[in-house]
Amino acid sequence: MEAPAPAPHSPAETPLPGVTAEFTVTSPEQMQELGRRLAKLLRAGDLVMLNGELGAGKTTLTRGLGEGLGVRGAVTSPTFVIARVHPSLGGGPPLVHADAYRLSGGLDEMEDLDLDVSLPDSVVVVEWGEGKVEELADDRLHVIIHRAVGDTTDEVRHVTLRGLGHRWAAVDLAVLSA
Ligand SMILES: Nc1ncnc2c1ncn2[C@@H]1O[C@H](COP(=O)(O)OP(=O)(O)OP(=O)(O)O)[C@@H](O)[C@H]1O
Ligand SMILES: [Mg+2]
């Protein structure tokens, strides 16, 4: 008798509870537009964690967030800088854009960035922050970007937004596609 087939590979992360919304994005421009729209829902104190493989579009989405928030300076992929503060050009909160890719440790290593100090007055967006910055806030917006498998163009991305905690409980993420 044959051994049973192995269970399909499941990601290490357990499903998080919370409000979710899913979008299909077909170009970098659309990803940026999603960021611009998402920015309208964000306020000081929000922690946004971006999850997705290299080149998924995390920085592209953040560029749109920066535009939507009306902050100064182009959002780029930092090569040496781990976190960059983009002050608001208006009266809104600054955008703190962190990329934890090169950080191997946990929150200890992130401590130098003082994200906990920035968070109450800023929108903090972290790429590659899984397992590193969750302790900053119980209320978090997770954005998971997947490259489409088997899609005809390589510009298709599936984006899942998952809001955790009271902050996001009553937020209708579906407005982002309207
Ligand atoms: N639908 C899409 N959304 C976002 N980016 C796309 C899309 N289709 C193609 N791209 C391209 O994929 C690349 C995404 O790069 P980006 O720097 O945003 O990714 P990243 O997730 O931040 O990567 P890294 O993990 O290296 O920081 C860009 O070159 C962009 O033009
Ligand atoms: Mg990036």
UniProtKB/TrEMBL annotation:
InterPro entries cross-referenced by the UniProt entry: P-loop_NTPase (IPR027417), T6A_TsaE (IPR003442)
Cross-referenced Pfam families: TsaE
Major localisation: cytoplasm
Subcellular localization: Cytoplasm
Key words of the record: ATP-binding, Cytoplasm, Magnesium, Metal-binding, Nucleotide-binding, tRNA processing
Family: Belongs to the TsaE family.
Main function: Required for the formation of a threonylcarbamoyl group on adenosine at position 37 (t(6)A37) in tRNAs that read codons beginning with adenine. Is involved in the transfer of the threonylcarbamoyl moiety of threonylcarbamoyl-AMP (TC-AMP) to the N6 group of A37, together with TsaD and TsaB. TsaE seems to play an indirect role in the t(6)A biosynthesis pathway, possibly in regulating the core enzymatic function of TsaD.
Name of the featured protein: tRNA threonylcarbamoyladenosine biosynthesis protein TsaE
